[in-house]
Amino acid sequence: MSQLKPVYWQKEDLKQLERLSSSANWSQMGCFKTSTALWLLNRRLRHIENPAVLIITTQSGKGSYFRDVPKCLPSKWQVVNVKSNGIHLIINGFQHKLGKTLNDEITFPHLVVTHYHLFSRSNMDQKEDCKSCEGSGLLNLTNLPLPCTDCNAKGWVWKPLTIGDKILRRKWDMIILDEAHKIKNPETKWTKSIKKAKTRTSTL
Asked: Nearest 5°: phi and psi at 25?
């Protein structure tokens, strides 16, 4: 598939955006925000070996990234689609299942595309009673209670991380928030989760 080229006014936008050390927003990116965001990330990250980009979008909007990545970016870039039920690699428009959780060992230049709902539940930094000792910290296996080894006698364990948590604990080279008005409400669960994300730069 032949590569698209930015039109003349996009080139002017990109020239301005590339100079920014802060995040960019829709009003700075013109009407073709998806392709502008993709060209921008390529320019900002071209000096980084195996960069990783997180794209958080709406369920209905994910297709535009799957369609435009091969048009805008070099062929070395790969798209990973993260769903609540598994991880898929997009190759030539087809999805190939990689597994059920995001692998930290993915090293090729890649974009992880997921949706806001994945961050509606978070167990990060949350505790729960240890099931082995029912929160007491002791096991009554003999007449003499023994300290529980599953929780080191604390009575609690960390809750297992969700897929969203595993995404957020990674360090991203760039994050793109599609429809970023969705995090304007500070009380929503996904807003609280997404704001914990760590990145060098972001585009809205």
From this structure: -125, 175
Residues 130, 118 share a domain: no
Q: At what angle do helices 62-72 and 33-45 cross, to 10 degrees?
A: 50
Please indicate, yes or no, whether residues 167 and 150 belong to a single structural domain of this protein: no
Asked if the model's pLDDT at residue 2 lies above 60, the reply is no
Closest CA to 156 of 125, 132, 135: 135
Residue 20 has pLDDT above 80, yes or no: no
Burial of 79 (0-12, 13-18, 19+ CB in 10 A): buried
Round to whole Å and give the CA distance between 184 and 25.
14
- What's the rounded Cα separation, in Å, for the pair 97 and 47? 30
Q: What pTM was computed for the model? A: 0.82
Biggest CA-to-CA distance, the chain: 81
| Residue whose entry in the numeric block shows the structure tokens 């297992």 | 160
